[in-house]
Description:
The protein is of the alpha+beta class and 186 residues long. Helices cover 30% and strands 17% of the residues. It has a single domain (26-165), classed as NADH Oxidase. It has 6 helices and 6 strands; from the N terminus they run ββααβαβααββα. Strands 3, 4, 5 and 6 form a 4-stranded antiparallel beta sheet that branches. α2 (38-49) packs antiparallel against α4 (110-127).
Amino acid sequence: MLTLISYRNFNYMLMDYFELINTRESVRDYDTNKKIEKEILLKIADAGRLAPSAANRQPWKFIIISSDHMLQQVRECYPKNWFKNAPHILVVVGDSSLSWVRTTDDYNSIETDVTIAMDHMILAAEAVKVATCWIAAFDNKVLREVLQLADNEVVYSITPLGYPNSGYQKKIEKIRKPLDEVVEFL
């Protein structure tokens, strides 16, 4: 089911949430020449801003890399050719000194907080037909150096942002374990 909404003078056809999570997939085939409008990039970032975080600390910042100079440098953190075709790269940076810490065992919520924010942005991107691919296998040292991150700033995942190349076809069915294998009622 699609719904027409207006957001900051842009009209979007949004799909039902369950359709969205069922059809969202990792894309590794980007149209290098088709940049995403700044207003759409801001809409995606706003979904991350609205994500929940432990004790509402919001210990993050969202870096959207779009300039050719910075893209060239950041692309060195992940060696796949398809990654080098994405016109934008989103990096979610968390500040572990600002995140909530559980007192019983000193668990720091930073990884959970930034992961929720990234997931919100990836789903928002799918809702506006922007392709993503969650990447955790990047070279953290390269990325930290390029972005000049402080010691307390961490990155757990990045994603390219772009429109798929023309002719790109989504998979028809996701391969997942059956529900009865992953859900327990006690």
